[in-house]
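Lab notebook page, bench 4
Experiment: in silico fold of construct C2
Operator: M.H.
Input chain length: 259 residues
Purpose: comparison with the prior construct
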Amino acid sequence: MTELSPAVEKPVIRLPNGTCLHLDSPDCLNDARFIIGEIFGEQVYSQPGFELHPTDTILDVGSHVGVFAHWAAPQIPQGRMICMEPTSAANRFEYSLAQNGITNVRLHRCAAGGPSSTLEMIEDPQFAGLNRSNHFQQPAYMRLLVAYFKKKQALGAAQVRTVPCQSLEEIMASESLEQCDLLKMDCEGGEFDILEHTSRHVLRRFRRIMMEFHVYHSTHSLCKLRDRLVADGFAVHVKKKWLNHLLTKTGMLWATRID
C-alpha cells in the first residue's frame, strides 16, 4: 500500500513485514516498487542455505533506498547490518531507518571498490536501483525501458557524480569486523572491481556471499567471477533465467565458504 501526504506528496510504502519505506518524491515510486517486488514478492534473496539467523552480521553493498535492509534487519534482531550506499538514495534510506526505529543498521555513504579512492557514478534519483559506474553501459533493452518511462512521466536526466570509495577491508576494519555471516552485493557491475580489490584473506572472512551480477563491461566475465570464488574456497551456484539474462545481462550468484 502507498500513501501520499497531501502537503508534501512524499510516498510511504507499507511493506509486507510491517515496516514502511519512506521516499522523498512520487518520482521514485516505480523504481522502489520494482525492487520491493523482487525482494518481498519474488523472494530473490531466499535460497536454501542462505536463511538469516537472529544474530547474523550482514554487509550490504549497494543498499539503494534500503529495501533489502527493511527486509533483512527485522530478521536479525540480535545481529547487525553494515550498509554501503554512495548516492543520494542514502538520504531516503537513512530517513526510513529513523522512521521505522531500526537501530541495528549502520550506513556508510560510500561505494565499495579500491581502497580510499573515488568513483564516477551515474546517479538517477528516479531509478536509484540502476545507479552505476560511469564506465559501465547497460544492455539496449534496459536503456530503452528507462527512456520510455522517463519520456512517459517527463522525468529528468541522470547525473554523473564523483563519490568516495572504500575497500571491503577498510569497511570491516572501521567496524571492527573480523568475521561476517553474509556479504550481499547488488551494485550494477561494481562486484567485479570489488572482488579485484579484495584479497583471498579478506574474502574468506565471509561465510556466505550472495549477489546479483551484471555483465556491463567488456572486462566482465561471469566465468572468471565464479572461478575466482571457487579458487578462494567457496562452493558457487549461479542462477540465470535465460530470457532475463539475455535482455538484462544479470543473474544471481550464491557462494558458501568451504571450511
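Observations: The chain has a mean pLDDT of 91. The domain at 2-257 is CATH 3.40.50.150 (Rossmann fold).
Next step: discuss at group meeting.
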